[in-house]
Specification:
Layout: H1 3-24, H2 43-65, H3 77-87, H4 93-113, E1 122-124, E2 130-132, H5 133-157
Antiparallel strand pairs: 1-2
Amino acid sequence: MSERKDQAIRNLNESRAYLESVLDAVGDRWEVQVYSDGAQWNIRQLTIHLADSDKGQSRVVQAVAGGQDFIPPDFDIERYNLRMTEKRAEVTASEARASLSESRANLLEWLNEVDESLLDCSGRHASLRILTVEEFLNVMADHERSHARDIAAVLASSTP
C-alpha cells in the first residue's frame, strides 16, 4: 500500500477511535444538548448526523474517484443536514453507531482496493469546495473529530 493511502487510513482510524471513545462515555446522556444555536442537536441527533454524513461522504468520495459529479452546484448543506436529522428522528444511538461502523468498514475496504492515483481525482464537496479524494478523506476525519470534541466538552460539563 502507498504512504498516502496509509496516511489517509490512519487519519480515518484515529478520528473514528476518538469518536468511539467519546460516544462510549455518553452513558445515559444521549439527549444532552450539544449545540444551542443552528441545528440545536443533542448527542443522539449529532451521532445520527455523523452516521448520515459518513455514509453520504463515502458515496461522494467513491463517485468522485469514479469520475462522477455527485454534488450539484446549488447544494445547500445546512438544509440537507436539518432535513436528514428530521427524517431520521427515531433512529436510536445504537442504530446510528452501527451505521457508523458499517459505512467506515465499507469505505476502508474500498480504499484498500483502489489505486493510489484515485486520491488525486477531484470533485465537489457538500461545502461546494472542489476537493481531491485525499482532501475529502481528511475532511471526513476532521468533521467527526470536531463533533467528537464538541460532545466531549458537553459531557465534561454535565453530570453522569
